[in-house]
Write a sequence for this structure.
């Protein structure tokens, strides 16, 4: 009940008594956490509440969102071997920001993690994903791209045993990737490096046993429907939703584009730029198509492309 004769209760000013924080007067934080009712703190809390109500009325993005989903996401990244400092680096935020979300917020008397955070911070942290490049050596990641690379090399005739020897691992290690669908960060990166070195290299076939191994591997790959490296786009091979190219080896459109690539190379055009102009994601992808088609463009090598083309 209010009225002209009512006497307003005195405003009690309180100081911050938190062990790990030093809140200052004139802030909504001091009003909420330290229960200070001095004029500056009360005014700050009132202004914040007015902004919140106005944002809700006009449908604006909230100034704070629940930190729970972000905390769970960061902890999942940690379980994959990505430390919170590395997460902060990848997200472009300070390590202390991440620490407050997953460990404890110094401004809270109960020592609990931060409950609400800015939407922009949430978006940046949620955008960090476990990948071949971000996972720790011992972290476990999805092996979609790793398996596709191994399968593509099998489709070129490289046996599992031959690949295991080059990777310096046991034969069963590669079998386990097939069985579990996961791989360590270290092994995934090793497979990627091996793939980049062997995708256009024929397996050894000088001896009868080597030729037999190649034949068995090619038949094995054919039974499973695995495609060679040239059928995969480098930018998509790690994407579970991606599919290999299904272009015909005799596709006229591809040949025309490769002819155009040769022409552009002869003019001195940068190979990567020329490939992108013609619809490929990169020069390496275009070169693989050329190798698949037996086209002369497959012999181009930057930066001497124009000389070879001529």
């Amino acid at each position: 009940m209010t009225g002209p004769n009512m006497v307003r209760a005195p405003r009690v000013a309180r100081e911050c008594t938190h062990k790990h924080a030093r809140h200052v007067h004139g802030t909504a934080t001091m009003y909420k956490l330290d229960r200070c009712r001095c004029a500056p703190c009360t005014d700050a809390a009132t202004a914040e509440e007015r902004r919140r109500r106005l944002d809700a009325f006009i449908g604006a993005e909230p100034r704070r969102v629940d930190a729970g989903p972000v905390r769970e996401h960061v902890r999942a990244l940690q379980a994959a071997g990505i430390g919170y400092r590395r997460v902060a680096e990848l997200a472009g935020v300070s390590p202390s920001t991440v620490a407050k979300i997953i460990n404890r917020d110094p401004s809270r008397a109960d020592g609990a993690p931060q409950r609400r955070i800015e939407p922009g911070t949430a978006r940046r942290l949620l955008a960090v994903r476990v990948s071949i490049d971000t996972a720790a050596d011992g972290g476990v990641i999805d092996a979609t791209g790793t398996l596709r690379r191994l399968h593509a090399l099998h489709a070129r005739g490289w046996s599992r045993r031959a690949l295991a020897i080059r990777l310096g691992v046991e034969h069963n290690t590669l079998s386990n990737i097939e069985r579990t669908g996961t791989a360590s960060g270290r092994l995934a990166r090793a497979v990627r490096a091996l793939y980049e070195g062997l995708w256009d290299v024929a397996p050894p076939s000088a001896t009868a046993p080597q030729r037999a191994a190649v034949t068995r591997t090619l038949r094995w790959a054919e039974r499973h429907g695995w495609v060679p490296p040239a059928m995969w786009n480098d930018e998509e091979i790690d994407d579970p939703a991606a599919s290999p190219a299904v272009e015909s080896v005799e596709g006229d459109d591809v040949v025309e584009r490769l002819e155009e690539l040769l022409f552009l190379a002869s003019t001195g055009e940068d190979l990567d730029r020329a490939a992108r102009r013609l619809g490929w994601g990169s020069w390496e992808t275009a070169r693989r198509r050329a190798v698949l088609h037996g086209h002369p463009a497959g012999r181009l090598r930057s930066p001497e492309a124009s000389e070879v083309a001529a």
Summary: The longest helix spans residues 39-58. The chain is about 50% helix and 5% strand.
